[in-house]
Design goal:
With about 800 residues, the protein is an alpha+beta fold. It is built from 30 helices and 28 strands. Strand 17 and strand 18 form a beta hairpin. Belongs to the NAD-dependent DNA ligase family. LigA subfamily.
């Protein structure tokens, strides 16, 4: 590529990316997919990396953040960033309008009106249409230079659009964090154990004051412009306040906002004009009604006299304009007392701590409860019962506690701990490994999880009960016909018809079960037949249908293949499950916890008693022998200091279960274990629960070991050890059928392409998985090759 063509290509890429940013952030009318946008950006980054001399300050690539600066320089605002007077009542607004009418001798003057965003006010300086400096408000006269951080905000144009741009512009606006982005960011932080943001405003302010712009670039910030001043082509730092009311060639503020949008700045779509007091108050109420559904936080609305001539005549008082006013909404944060913490169980079993609060008015609503999210959030806040706390309610977001007023805490207040059992069903509460989420392990018996358990149990890839949709599940559960999944198998035709009649009466609808003077039962007959058909199933489907945490179809098939029968699987302690390839400690513990709950075992018994049968049970697979090692099993339990090497020494010296359970430190020492390892093992074993787990694990190992053949070669399938990915549409076989055939030959069928993928089968309209396979150099099969390999006749 020649220098000229290279320069032209880079310019074209920048223009396309700038236009895409403008359409997305300003016009809210994205015209290219994210993948295309990312491809353009990658190409530009690569070209600029190869030719750094062509990088410019206004290139879209410069938004990613530079190295930390170490400090913020002071910026003296050429035009002061003034505060606004506040009004909290209609009467105060009426006084504001009356003063303007009296001073200007006008009736019903026109105002520019806009939401008052709850973010961080900033000033942006543009010279000859290019962004050169950005600063915080500071004390109004002097702010902090946060240019590098502001460059990372994609809604702020680095280069203005159009040809008629004044030489120097000072644009005022608000950096904020959209609600959805704030919630998504905090959700990710909670899941990863990161630091959550207290509220969107603090998130925006804190992001702009990061010394490392690369951190600011990771925060989901947005921007709205609300003012502009045209400056002389100088770097003046002090201006007379009387000059602060001009915006170049504009006669009205509403015209200036329209021009800002034409130059490429986002301007709130809720901005407009209103004439006189009645229209101002109507605007306030209209925005107040929409407040909860707006995509950003606001704390009021702003009224500005629309014509600049009138603004100049009104002037200023106490460094605040007489021609503008902020009409504030009720506060969204208040203090109250935390009276208790309850546990709420969600439909998937997640246990959420909920604060019981002394009732308090927040944003016009009485708040008595607030979410505490999870145990990690409670620890971060260090919140304790009896504390005085700050509660925030923003929009339709559930109220939450954002901080504790520590100097009001009672001496000796104890830290809060998660209760050990579910308040709904009494099953054990188990914390997910590597996650802040705690769950109820009574998946099959917990009333809070009932509907979700029923949906999953009846789904197509589980028990496949055709016709049992969400509506019937909710009615069966709400009206008391089904309390556990096993209750599905005692339903009668009369039960279903009666349920439908009661549901129709409850909803006030015309009974659909009555047609032409007689009861219509075909739908109920079909559902009873589908339930009856589902009684006969496979072990893999049955295990998947139980809804065990972390057990998807692949894991269910692996368990069924390796252990062969439900009777075996339901009695095993969790360490045994780690012997199955691709099952790690977290998944194994989840399976073990599930089968350790008496309620889950009772539900399984009830299913079997009501005729559910598994037709493909076998003895444990000989393949289990390859990973079935007593020393590796002991090492997987997590006994302190018992490394795989030490476990081998222990088993070599003490092969019998009884001797391992009884061995004292001197015996362990003679077995070759270091003193600290021996002591750690004895102390761990002294805990009753640990000893019971060790005993169960060793007994289960001995039982399975006796069932597995020795010295017999295990015949491998032609795809053993292979990982296959299916993508696109197959015309002869369904994706599910192809997956079953491949798995029967030993393959692991994965949903994503990685370096471990053996080959990809690409059907029609294959997408990004095919692209990634080509990028990684992975073998690609078409459907014809797959059919030939599987010996499936192709359609003529």
């Amino acid at each position: 590529m020649t220098n000229a063509s290279l320069t032209k290509r880079i310019a074209a890429l920048r223009e396309k990316i700038d236009d895409a940013n403008h359409r997305y952030h300003v016009l809210d009318d994205a015209d290219i997919p994210d993948a295309d946008y990312d491809a353009l950006m990658r190409e530009l980054i690569d070209l600029e990396a190869q030719h750094p001399e062509l990088v410019t300050a206004d290139s879209p690539t410069q938004r990613v953040g530079a190295a930390p600066s170490g400090a913020f320089a002071e910026v003296h605002h050429a035009i002061p960033m003034l505060s606004l007077g506040n009004a909290f009542t209609d009467a105060e607004v009426a006084d504001f309008v009356r003063r303007i009418e009296d001073r200007l001798d006008r009736t019903n003057p026109q105002f520019s009106v806009e939401p008052k965003l709850d973010g961080l006010a900033i000033s942006l300086r543009y010279e000859h249409g290019r962004f050169v400096r950005g600063a915080t408000r500071g004390d109004g006269a002097t702010g902090e230079d946060v240019t590098a951080n502001l460059r990372t905000v994609k809604a702020i144009p680095l280069k203005l659009r159009g040809d008629h741009v004044p030489a120097v512009l000072d644009v005022r606006g608000e950096v904020y964090m959209p609600r959805a982005a704030f919630e998504k960011y905090n959700r990710k932080m909670r899941e990863t154990g990161g630091k959550v943001l207290a509220n969107p405003r603090n998130g925006a302010a804190g992001s702009l004051r990061q010394l490392d712009p690369r951190l600011a670039a990771q925060r989901p910030l947005a921007f709205y412009a609300y003012g502009v001043h045209a400056l002389p082509d100088t770097d003046a730092t002090a201006r007379d306040e009387a000059q602060a009311d001009t915006a170049g060639p504009f006669e009205r503020h509403s015209d200036a906002l329209a021009q800002l949008k034409a130059w490429g700045f986002p301007v709130s779509g809720e901005s407009g004009t209103a004439r006189g007091l009645d229209e101002l108050l109507a605007y306030y109420r209209r925005i107040g009604e929409k407040r909860d559904v707006l995509p950003f936080d606001i704390d009021g609305v702003v009224y500005k006299l629309d014509d600049y001539a009138g603004q100049r005549e009104m002037g200023f008082v106490s460094r605040a304009p007489r021609w503008a006013l902020a009409h504030k909404f009720p506060a969204q944060e208040q203090s109250t007392v935390l009276e208790g913490i309850d546990i709420q169980i969600g439909r998937t079993g997640a246990a959420t701590p909920v604060a019981r609060l002394k009732p308090v008015q927040v944003a016009g609503v009485t708040v008595t409860n607030a979410t505490l999210h999870n145990i990690e959030q409670i620890r971060r806040l260090d919140v304790r019962i009896g504390d005085t706390v700050i509660v925030r309610r923003a929009g339709d977001v559930i109220p939450e506690i954002v901080r504790v007023i520590l100097d009001q805490r009672a001496p000796g207040a104890p830290a809060w701990t998660m209760p050990p059992t579910c308040p709904v069903c009494g099953s054990e509460l188990v914390k997910d490994e590597g996650s802040p989420i705690t769950r109820c392990s009574g998946e099959l018996t917990c009333a809070a999880q009932r509907n979700e358990a029923l949906r999953h149990f009846a789904s197509r890839r589980a028990m496949d009960i055709e016709g049992l949709g969400d509506r019937f599940i909710e009615d069966l559960s709400d009206l008391g016909y089904v309390k556990t999944i096993a209750d599905l198998y005692k339903l009668t035709l009369d039960d279903l018809v009666e349920m439908k009649r009661r549901a129709d009466e409850r909803d006030g609808t015309t009974p659909e079960t009555v047609k032409a003077g007689k009861v219509a039962t075909k739908w109920a007959e079909n559902l009873i037949e589908a339930i009856d058909t589902s009684r006969r199933t496979t072990l893999a489907r049955f295990l998947y249908a139980l809804g065990i945490e972390h057990v998807g179809e692949s894991t269910a098939k692996a368990l069924a293949t390796m252990f062969g029968s439900l009777a075996t699987i339901r009695t095993l302690p969790w360490p045994i499950f780690t012997r199955v390839p691709d099952i790690g400690g977290e998944v194994a513990r989840a399976i073990g916890h599930f089968f350790d709950q008496p309620g889950n075992q009772q539900a399984i018994d009830a299913l079997l008693e009501r005729g559910v049968s598994i037709g493909d049970e076998t003895a444990p697979s000989p393949k289990l022998r390859a990973s079935f090692d007593r020393a590796e099993l002991l090492a997987s339990i997590g006994i302190p200091k018992l490394t795989p090497i030490r476990a081998v020494q222990l088993i070599a010296a003490l092969p019998a279960r009884e001797t391992i359970l009884a061995a004292e430190p001197d015996v362990l020492d003679s077995a070759g274990l270091p003193a600290d390892t021996a002591d750690a093992f004895v102390h761990w074993r002294a805990v009753a629960a640990n000893r019971a787990l060790l005993d169960r694990t060793l007994q289960a190992y001995d039982t399975l070991d006796a069932q597995l053949p020795r010295g017999e070669p295990v015949s491998a399938g032609p795809l053993d050890g292979k990982t296959v990915v299916l993508t696109g549409t197959l015309s002869t076989l369904s994706r599910d059928a192809a997956k079953e055939r491949l798995e029967a030959l030993g393959a692991k069928v994965s949903g994503s392409v990685s370096k471990k993928t053996s080959f990809v089968v690409a059907g029609e309209a294959a997408g990004s998985k095919l692209d990634k396979a080509a990028e990684l150099g992975i073998e690609i099969w078409d459907e014809a090759r797959l059919l030939a390999f599987l010996d499936v006749p192709t359609p003529s």
